[in-house]
Amino acid sequence: MWAKLDSGWFDHSKFDAAARNAPRAEVLAAWAVLVAWTVRARSDGRLTRDKATRVVEMAVEPSASPSTVVDALVSAGLLRLVSDTGGVLELSGWHDWQLSKAEQDEAREAASERQRRRRSGVGEGSHVTRDKPTTVTRDSRESEACESQSTVTRESRNRRDKTRQEETRTEESRADARERAHESTALLVPLVVDDAQTVTPSPLQPRPETTRPVPPTPPTLSPGATAILAELGRHGRLDPIATADMAQTLEGRRIATGRPLPHVLSAIGDCAAKAVEGTQAQALRSMLVSFCDRAGTGPRARAPVAQSAPVERAWSVGEVRAEVTS
After folding, report:
1. 94: Cα within 13 Å, side-chain hemisphere
2. Which of 15, 98, 132, 307 is the most exposed place for a label (fewest CB within 10 A)?
3. Using alpha carbons only, what angle is made at residue 89 by residues 86 and 108, rounded to the nearest 5 degrees?
4. Do residues 41 and 91 lie in contact, with contact meaning Cβ atoms separated by under 8 Å?
5. Domain that holds residue 261
6. Which of 40, 62, 67 is nearest to 51 (CA)?
7. pLDDT of 308
């Protein structure tokens, strides 16, 4: 069974009153645990003071004494003494939200009856007459809603799997068709019989060969950028950003701020030590730039200007500064 709590239960004024005699966090935790315990014990919200003290001591482990927390709940009216039971306490407002023992039995019986009808093949639309009307409770409605949601989730998952399988089969069929067409047209080339006679090829045009793009020539790196690129390659966690562009960016920012190269190389190692496996390349890039921007100081360091420069423009600024220096 489920214990139900209102969404604003912790903000009730009675907890403010109870917090005057015990820590507020312990009062809140003790009351919630007592509600859950009485629902599980099917005691209709009632328990003895000794039992309440033991439950609070076991589940909450308060810094104050458990009896102090229970007394604070009693003084605030969150636990009230039942006059005709000889010292039994009852949780205030328990019956407004929780199911009594009788209601729990009715809900379980209704759920069992639905299971029996479902297993025997008797649906809601059949002509079988019920002997007595079925009691609909909050728990039964929640159970039916959960079952309906699970069914919808399974059907949606099955549809997605079926769609993926169909797309995979379609792609494989297209790939096979392209391969067969390529094999058939690859033979349609002019056959030279002799120097003066040529066999006329088939009118079908052969499939043009797909040319792979020529990879761009890597840029020439300065000695500082080469050292930075080598340092990036030493750390496995920085592999996603260990590129020549990244090395040029860091070298440009280093030259623009006048930082010594050993400080930047040391900052790269610090960044690799702090990085977490699986970090996105963009986040890793920003983290590395931040570490290198804070690396040491130089005679010409201008940290505010360097930090305000975008990452995409820093390397070009560094190249201009390097040309002027040289």
Report:
1. 26
2. 132
3. 110
4. no
5. 223-325
6. 67
7. 44
Contacts of 69 (CB under 8 A, 6+ apart): 22, 26, 27, 30, 56, 60, 62
Q: Is the pTM of this model over 0.70?
A: no
User: Which residue do the tokens 């002019």 mark?
Assistant: 190
Q: Count the alpha carbons within 13 Å of 153 in the hemisphere toward its beta carbon.
A: 6
In a domain, 67, yes or no: yes
Q: Examine residue 178 and state whether it is found in any structural domain, yes or no.
A: no
Residue 181 lies in a domain: no
212 within some domain: no
Number of domains in the chain: 2
Among the three residues 82, 97, 112, which one is the final residue of a domain in this structure?
A: 97
Determine phi and psi for 234, rounding to 5 degrees.
-75, -15
What letters, b where the CB count within 10 A reaches 16 and e where it falls short, cover 154-181? eeeeeeeeeeeeeeeeeeeeeeeeeeee
Q: Using the 3D structure, point to which of 76, 97, 118 is the last residue of a domain.
A: 97
User: Residue 261 half-sphere exposure, CB side, CA atoms within 13 Å?
Assistant: 14
Sequence-separated (6 or more) residues with CB below 8 Å from residue 231 = 265, 268, 269
**DSSP-assigned letter for residue 259:** -
Amino acid code (one letter) for 34: L
Segment 163-203, tens digit of pLDDT: 878 877 777 777 777 776 665 555 444 444 445 555 555 55
How many other CB atoms sit within 10 Å of the CB of residue 256?
Answer: 24
When the pLDDT of each residue in the chain is averaged and rounded to a whole number, the result is 75
DSSP secondary structure, 177-205, as one string: HHHHHHHHHTT-S-EE-SSS-EEPPPSSP
**How many angstroms separate the CA atoms of 2 and 105, rounded?**
14
| Diameter over CA atoms, the chain | 123
SS3 91: strand
CATH number, domain with residue 66: 1.10.10
Beta strands in the chain (DSSP E): 46-48, 79-81, 88-91, 191-192, 198-199
Given the structure tokens 């990879």, which residue do they identify?
A: 215
